[in-house]
Design brief:
276 residues, alpha/beta, 8-stranded parallel β-barrel, 12 helices, 13% strand
Length: 276
């Protein structure tokens, strides 16, 4: 079974399909053990955690490929990858991602100097330019099962009806699925799902424009995929800061050892049995 086939099978098996954001191979192992059927690599995750940069379009295709290869070589779950605006050549980006083991990608309709989808001040390219991006990405697919998802950030600037019109144009250009970004109301997702003839993804990132809808909410609205792009990495970052502060202030890690993963659990997660 190809990665794309695995992704589509997971989508058929779970309604909505939950996608766990993973910033590295170890996080992917943890998500797999938790029972997720599919994984996600966030462009913001790569920029923030691999390079210490904000999500403003400063990372390139090669930067994302490093993390994708590390994850797919270790974990067999299908992986959806954020390829931002497709960089200079969406077709090449798709071919490289597929060769790295990805099952799916999404690209967006912002200008190349992009912003996080839940921040104000986003600027979008014209619909025709995004259609060309989608067509280019589709031309790079290694086979029909590989998934090209088109993300639209238009709801914040142009309104939901305009965003739906864009999504319909992207589907007509060959997009297999739609990523409806930063919608504030469940009715907005319901409208997308009713108007777009392909699976629609809801991004449930924290501290953004979209409330923390439940799976039951999204299922009732007709949403096919629920994405949690950085939930675990945000929690890990907060815990790491607490540990660093405790060690620095106390001169010992004793007060925070109980918060740490044990060596035995680490080895169990890795499937490693140390020599006796």
């Amino acid at each position: 079974m190809t990665p794309g086939q695995k992704f589509r099978a997971a989508l058929a098996a779970e309604k909505p399909l939950q996608l766990a954001g993973t910033i590295n191979a170890y996080a992917a192992l943890l998500a797999e053990r938790a029972g997720f059927r599919a994984l996600y690599v966030s462009g913001a995750g790569v920029a923030n955690h691999s390079y210490g940069l904000p999500d403003t379009g400063q990372t390139e295709l090669a930067d994302v490929l490093i993390d994708v290869r590390r994850i797919t070589r270790r974990v067999g779950l299908p992986l959806l990858v954020d390829i931002d605006t497709g960089w200079d050549d969406p077709a090449t980006a798709v071919r490289e991602m597929a060769a790295a083991g990805a099952a799916a990608v999404h690209l967006e309709d912002q200008v190349p100097a992009k912003l996080c989808g839940h921040l104000p001040g986003k600027h979008l390219v014209p619909t025709a330019e995004m259609v060309a991006r989608v067509q280019s990405a589709v031309s790079g697919k290694p086979g029909r099962d590989f998934v090209v998802m088109a993300r639209t950030d238009a709801a914040a600037n142009e309104g939901v009806p305009a965003a739906i019109a864009r999504a319909q144009a992207y589907v007509a250009a060959g997009a297999d699925m739609i990523f409806a970004e930063a919608l504030p109301r469940l009715d907005d997702y319901r409208a997308f799902a009713a108007a777009v003839p392909v699976p629609v993804l809801a991004n449930l990132t924290e501290f953004g424009q979209t409330p923390y809808f439940t799976l039951a909410d999204l299922r009732a609205a007709g949403i096919a995929l629920a994405l949690y792009p950085l939930s675990a990495s945000r929690a890990a970052a907060a815990a790491s800061r607490e540990v660093y502060q405790a060690i620095h202030q106390d001169g010992s890690q004793k007060s925070v050892v109980a918060k740490m993963q044990t060596r035995a659990d680490l080895y169990d997660t890795l499937g490693y049995t140390p020599p006796q």
